[in-house]
Amino acid sequence: MTDLTFFTADLVGFALASALALVVLLAPGALVARLLAKTWPDAGWRDFTPALAIAVYPVIDALAIRLTGIEGATIIRLCLVVAAFATARDMIPVPGRVAAFGIVLWWLYLAVVYVDFDINGGLYQSVTVLDLVKHSAVVSEIAMHGLPLRDPFYARDAVAGYYHYFYDGAAIIEFLGAGIVDSRMAFVGSGFAVGIATASFLRALVVELGWQRATNQRLTAIVVLVCCLGGFDLIGVAFRWFALGKFEQNPEWWDDEISFLPTTASWVPHHLAAVVACFVALLLFAKLLDAHRKRAVIPAMIAGLAMSSAFGLSIWITIGASVICLLSLRFLPRENWRGWIVSLMFAAVCALLLSIPQLRDLVQGRSGGEFPLATWIREPARIGEWIGDPVNPLLALLLAPIVWLVEFGPFAVGAWLFYRQRENFSTEHKFARILIACTVGGLMMNLLLCSAIINNDFGWRVIWFAQLPTMLATIAVLQACPTSQNSRRLLIASLALGMATTVFAAIFARIPVTRLPETSISYINVDPQIDLELRRAYAWANSHIPADALLQHNPASAPRAFAFGLYSRNPVMTADYEADLFGATKDEVRARTYFFGEIFAGIRPVAEANNIHLIVTARDPLWPELSPSTCIYKTQRVCITGSSKP
Q1: What are the helix (H) ranges across 515-585?
Q2: Could you tell me where the DSSP H helices lie in 314-392?
């Protein structure tokens, strides 16, 4: 039987969320562009409008939700939209045909990798649920309860210590969606806006740097092409498959991740939004070096807003930006040092004042433990799985440049061609010098530092300080093909392979793991029939169980649990063994997960759940022990208990 009820609901929700995100999240950037245009009338701030919206408003959303609730923050956003269209409509860019084609292509890509398919009695999810469970749970929590953020993965009295600013805007989109847009599609719609803002930002930077060598339409087409590219990751995926027999659905997982726009903007758009915010701040700092003091206050304050937003969007990117700000002194003329430091200090004070609530939440919401950053030497291509740990540091250092070349792929080629043609592109702009600092700093931090919490989010994200400059260089050189025939062939081949990586990511994100060779995430969507009934069960619970009632799934059945965060509005006692993400201690999480795991395994009596609703599936050993009277909701494979007595 073909159903497609959830497919249709997701598609409609995503369409509405995308439209809302474009208007509500991006249009108010015109107000900031208008303000900057009064300071620098000769600059093309209109093209920066989407990036300015991403950079400035997340911190405003966070403060508005904290002070007025989600309703008040939504009203403020709508007022900003009205003000933008009323007073700064000429600063709202209208996409041409080429840009519109790119936007449609981006929308279709996100639809492919995120929409659920309910077909023939099963629910077929994308591999992106691996991260979407967290994103969706946070958006839902903010939309329902506002700020400070409650821990959606572990029920506790303390606030959650997490960077949530991106999810605040998505929560406003969900609130405006009025039941049509769920938290999942609100997040994806917001990511849709971030992808557009990043692409327009790249184009605007090329023009700002004086690197435009093509017509406006052709430049836009080149930007669209570049934003569709990945690295040469298929080489690494193939090598890993043949060497270890392990196949990766996501082409980024053959190595310590370095993902470009399609993957980053779809999987973790909050980190990419932080990248945009930091580069907006760096651009303003660069322009302030040549500005009169009387005209410097407002741009410096806007830079402070961008830095504050970045801190709440991604703490890892913000740490990296702090290093870049200091390293930039090495690449700026000495006579600019004082101006750079003064502007930075002024913006930092503004950012610190605006970030006090977030800092307080981080201090109160996170348990004590290991320092979040650690020193290391980047392990290239996860070679420890081949030769054993620990990996020889000298070998890691020798292989790192080779792996970087594979990871950067067409952008490494573009950067090399840009260097060969550097006499055709002026680097006199102060921001061009800062881009050099970004490249050096991004590579060095990726090589020598990692995060010590769950995954290496620091290394995976901070490398964007090197990625964005290479993307700009690639856009620059693509405007005029190299004269050498060998260089042209190399460039064309690299573009084709980079595009193939993106196509691979979209296709294999949808193929069920049961139809693939051994993968590292074989527990995702392993039983589509149960997953479909779980989504239906959570939909029923959302309408029939009080929103504050605890609804606990089996947290120990797999390395990650998904359905609770994707489809439910009810809190849980614990998500799974990785539920320490938002600040609970590892020991607390292990103990509670083990406890409930024993209940679902039938080792402990259900009565010990203390009247918490349990959602039990046919996969759980407890399933045969449940009597019909136990369930307030029951299907062939899923039961929701109404009391603690079986």
Answers
A1: 528-544, 563-567
A2: 315-327, 337-354, 356-365, 384-387
Question: Three-state SS for 576?
Answer: coil
Tell me how far apart the alpha carbons of residues 538 and 54 are, in angstroms, rounded to a whole number. 33
Distance CA 59, CA 82 (A): 20
Query: Cβ(122)–Cβ(550) under 8 Å?
Result: no
> For residue 645, what pLDDT band results from cuts at 50, 70 and 90?
very low
The one-letter code for the residue type at 362 is L
pLDDT band at residue 644 using 50, 70 and 90 as cut-offs = low
As given in the structure block, the two tokens for residue 176 are 């405006």
C-alpha span between 560 and 131 (Å, rounded): 10
**What's the average model confidence in pLDDT over 260-288?**
97
CB 488 within 8 Å of CB 496: no
pLDDT at residue number 335:
93
* Residues 278-327: tens digit of each pLDDT: 999 999 999 999 877 777 899 999 999 999 999 999 999 999 999 999 99
pTM: 0.97
CA dist 532 and 540 (Å) reads: 13
Q: Could you tell me which of 528, 617, 606, 521 has the C-alpha nearest to residue 560?
A: 521
Q: Does residue 2 have a pLDDT over 70? A: no
What are the tens digits of pLDDT across the range 515-560?
A: 888 777 889 999 999 999 999 999 999 999 999 999 999 999 999 9
- Residue (of 371, 551, 563, 396) closest to 450 by Cα position: 371
CA distances from 206 to 261, 399, 415, 494 (A): 17, 32, 14, 21
Q: Where are the alpha helices (DSSP H) in 377-513?
A: 384-387, 393-408, 410-420, 430-448, 457-462, 464-478, 485-510
Q: Are 146 and 67 in contact (CB under 8 A)?
A: no
What's the rounded Cα separation, in Å, for the pair 642 and 128? 32
Buried b (16+ CB within 10 A) or exposed e, 90-110: ebbbeeeebbeebbeebbebb
Distance in angstroms (rounded) separating the CA atoms of residues 621 and 375: 43
Q: Considering the chain, what is the average pLDDT of its residues?
A: 94
Rg (CA), the chain: 25
Burial 238-254 (b: 16+ CB within 10 A, else e): eebeeeeebbbbbbbbb
- pLDDT tens per residue, range 159-199: 999 999 999 999 999 999 999 999 999 999 999 999 999 99
Q: What is the DSSP string of 71-90?
A: HHHHHHHHHHHHHHHHH-GG
Cα separation, 356 vs 288, in Å, equals: 26
Reported as type and span, the H/E element at residue 516 is none
Q: Give the chain's length.
A: 646
pLDDT computed for residue 608 by the predictor: 92
Phi, psi of 122 (to 5 degrees): -130, 155
